[in-house]
Design goal:
single chain; about 200 residues; alpha/beta; Maf protein; 7-stranded mixed sheet; 5 helices; 7 strands; about 25% helix; globular
Length: about 200
């Protein structure tokens, strides 16, 4: 079975491929994704955006299973921000940081700036992910996953992507950027959501 993922994010595709490895399943990027105009991601929740993207992109692959996700970071001291703005946090004018760095580095810099006066014990956060599966413009399933952690004051580790170098897993005393790919599949919000989706599909 093939699932077409409506994302060009290399990190997400790598996570999905690792999660699918133990099943008779292949995850591939949606064909010609780069030529398809992106839909507006204006939902107020991860669930809203994941559903909207799955429905939209499934119309470009008739008869195929198309999976879309929306995921991000919720920081308690920031009242759940960056939330659905996680991938675009550095674009928000209030936290705008203009630099030639990559989007991930800019987003991390914005997060550290927003938490600069917040002590360690109040830096609790979670990664949350919602996956939606659709075919021919019809929603089939959704699944979600989350993982609790804490935001550090400086990045650690060279693996992962996004906010991973700042997201500490307290039980391991390691960030998401320090653990192995196999551990990340087991522990991450995206891995948990994907396994829940596979359970729904009975794979």
């Amino acid at each position: 079975m093939i699932l077409f993922a409506a994302t060009s994010n290399v990190g997400k595709l790598r996570d999905f491929a690792e999660a699918a490895r133990a099943h008779a399943l292949e995850v591939m990027p949606l064909p010609a994704l780069a030529t398809i105009p992106a839909p507006a991601e204006d939902g107020t929740t991860f669930d809203d955006n994941a559903r909207a993207k799955a429905l939209y992109y499934s119309r470009f692959a008739p008869g195929e299973l198309v999976m879309a996700d929306d995921s991000g970071l919720e920081v308690d001291a920031l009242h759940g921000a960056p939330g659905v703005r996680s991938a675009r946090y550095a674009e928000d004018s209030h936290f705008a940081i203009h630099s030639p760095d990559t989007t991930d580095l800019r987003n991390n810099a914005c997060l550290l700036s927003a938490l600069s006066d917040v002590p360690d014990h109040l830096r609790s956060a979670r990664y949350r992910a919602v996956l939606a599966l659709a075919r021919d413009g019809q929603l089939l399933f959704t699944a979600s996953g989350s993982v609790e952690g804490r935001i550090l004051t400086a990045p650690r580790g060279s693996g992962g992507f996004g906010y991973d170098p700042l997201f500490l897993l307290p039980d391991l005393d390691q960030t998401m950027a320090e653990i192995s790919v196999e551990q990340k599949h087991t522990l991450s919000h995206r891995g948990r959501a994907f396994r829940a989706l596979l359970d729904t599909l009975a794979l």
